[in-house]
Amino acid sequence: MMLRFALMIAVLMPFGARAAVEIQEVTSPGGIIAWLVEEPSIPFVAMDIRFKGGSSLDPEGKRGATYMMMGLLEEGAGDRDARAFTEATESVAANFGFDTFRDSVQIEAQFLTENREESLALLRDAIKFPRFDQDAIDRVRTQIVSIIEGNETDPNDIAGTTLAALSYPGHPYATGQEGTIESVNALTRADLITAHKALFARDRVYIGVTGDISAAELGPLLDTLLGDLPAAGAPMPVEAELALEGGQTIVDYRSPQSVVLFGHAGVDRDDPDFFPAFVANHILGGGGFESRLMVNVRERRGLTYGISSFLASRDYGNQWLGQFSTSNENVGPAIDLIQSIWDDMAENGVTPEELDAAQTYLTGAYPLRFDGNGRIAGILAGMQAQGLSADYIETRNDQVNAVTLEDIQRVAAEHLVVEDLHFVIVGQPQGFN
Q: Which domain, by its residues, includes 169?
């Protein structure tokens, strides 16, 4: 079964020329759905597979299990150990990537048309039959512990970890996806097998494919690749209750500069207010050197080299966040200025000139995201995982342009609450208790 969406958009294809593409929704004989953009001009295919759940599926006391499990998928699979699997992948000129996020995991695959069957057979082994050999476990465990040790001394990571713990105590969001040194060292092969079974199931998979493959060819391949996965995986995480309150938290860190991460509750991706908030954030702190935070905190006052704000959209909890670094003596004045900028937008909204400039930039920059098969495949899978319809690419700029001054005024007044801002300061700021 195949549903075609006549979705003609201007994108940058791998060879750099703009071309119209058509998204096709392909349903395999076994019921697996993928979105496909055919591009037969180059004998190459890019595939992006997302499984929802991610590191948030780790049970209490097993933090880091999903992260380690994903790191082991190319460290031996089927009847090949780590070295043999790498050699087999290189022999067919395939490239696989395995990444872990809080709400999903991502598998990227790129392969030549002539080696399609051999490449997908290797990918199937990695997804379905990872070996989890003890020597590979020990090697990857050592690498992860090294990452955690580095994070524990990095002020940016310290700020993020501190804010997460304050925001979502008791929820998987409260701790890093890599786990802790103690939890990672305690993980067993059985824990990795459990994490694998929890995650890889057909009820949570989203697939984007771009390149030299037809819908008729793709359907059966989906069943070969994923068809014998379990129908359902572990229960999804519960909604994360935001416990963050307005105020300041100082983490002592010996440095002439402080790193500051700040924020409060955000806007859900499904909320009708999302696009007004998205445009408002571009004006506030997402628009580079033209944003209010950059103009006022950096350009006019010279309190930082860079500052930004962003909407952190997650499956189970959203925040409106910002970040900057500055010398210890400038932390207080910078925070005072940020609070006044935050409050001013909440009270007065934005100007017509700011709105027009933001809409022009956001709509003009959007097509530039489609600059290669791998990027397009990732966008297709990501759209599905976010619950967006296949016509989103066609309508997205219309939704940006539909935002009015009144929309931003309303949304800013509701969501930008200066009293709720919490500032995590990693450093030795002066003038703070």
A: 2-226
Exposure b/e, 377-394, CB count within 10 A at least 16 = b: bbbbbbbbbeebebeebe
Alpha-carbon distances of 412 from 28, 245, 345, 396, rounded to whole Å:
45, 19, 6, 21
SS3 call for 52: strand
Nearest to 429 by CA among 247, 244, 253, 166: 253
- What stretches of 276-415 adopt beta strand conformation (E)? 307-312, 319-327
Tell me what pLDDT residue 19 has. 39
Q: Residue 46 is encoded by which pair of tokens?
A: 């890019």
Largest CA distance in the chain: 67
320 C-beta neighbours (distance < 10 Å), count: 25
Average pLDDT, consecutive stretches of 10 residues, N- to C-terminus, the chain (433 residues): 34 37 91 96 96 95 97 96 97 97 97 97 98 97 98 97 97 95 97 98 97 97 96 95 97 97 96 97 94 96 96 96 97 97 98 97 91 92 94 94 98 98 97 67
DSSP states of 339-369 as a string? HHHHHHHHHH---HHHHHHHHHHHHHHGGGG
Q: Classify residue 89: in a domain, yes or no.
A: yes
Residue 211 lies in a domain: yes
pLDDT, residue 49, reads: 98
Structural domain contains residue 324? yes
Residues 412, 414: Cα–Cα separation, whole Å = 5
Q: Is residue 238 part of a domain?
A: no
